Amino acid sequence: MRVLGIDPGLTRCGVGVVEGSVGRPLRLIDVNVVRTTSTLPVWERLVTIEKALDAWIEEHRPDAVSIERIFARSDVSTIMGTAQASGLAMVVAARRGIPVALHTPSEVKAAVSGNGRADKAQVTAMVTRILRLDAPPKPADAADALALAITHIWRGGAHERITEAQNKYAAAVAAAGRGTR
Amino acid sequence: MRVLGIDPGLTRCGVGVVEGSVGRPLRLIDVNVVRTTSTLPVWERLVTIEKALDAWIEEHRPDAVSIERIFARSDVSTIMGTAQASGLAMVVAARRGIPVALHTPSEVKAAVSGNGRADKAQVTAMVTRILRLDAPPKPADAADALALAITHIWRGGAHERITEAQNKYAAAVAAAGRGTR
Questions:
Q1: ipTM of the shown complex
Q2: Which superfamily, per CATH, for A2-180?
Q3: Catalytic site residue A141?
């Protein structure tokens, strides 16, 4: 399974691709930060982000996109741009039919470090270890995008299997219901 | 000048097209509300809004798109969806090279009614009068989109003329500077 993690932001939008599956070593495919200049109008910055994310999906063909879930009570100075970048990230994936998943920062921290309140340095250290890298990923603020991708492979996989099992169960119940009529 | 006004929202996104110019009667071209179901995932709702706005631009070929400026301190329960819908509206226009303008609710109220604190009924009444309609526009919550389009024709035109004049002045100053060297 190949997952594109996106840490949305208007000034810096982290992107990271990780490949692997639950119980097997994960592999870093690519990582970077998409930057836009704050002097440009918001819509030009958003178009730049859209093009960059489209190019990443085009190149890496992820099976799923994992995006940080944003809350209305986050940092007010950046919340609008972050919300807009996250919405755009969802659209870029969804209009291609690629499954989208949102994970909260504490879910991500818990998944990679076992501690939902881990700090940035701990998350980076764990991402480095999980992906068996010689050095922390660069740019430094791209580690969160990789953590989002890792979280989705580890949690998302489980989610999908549960959903699949539920669907099969529901289908079996429906079939049994039809059989007894 | 033909302007598409967009009152962004995830559940209801108002769209209205108005044609005309400063000092001449304005004409209603089309108005509606794009609705999405709250039970669907956010990304599917955003893709629906993107497709609808794309279709409106394709059909009406506006010279500019006028979108309500959203503030981080707006209603917390809807701010995320509203921010995402507004970002998407900007992108849909900007990636086609159509000029985007943001107008605050008080700018819109002041432009159509002369009062920045006008209530919804007053705005609807003024939009109905300005566009010389026999009855208030329907759906009722689409009046804001028309007010955004009207505001842009009345204010945006002036803005553009000022910007043009400033550019000409700057060019003249630069030319004069080169001449004396």
A1: 0.84
A2: Ribonuclease H-like superfamily/Ribonuclease H (3.30.420.10)
A3: yes
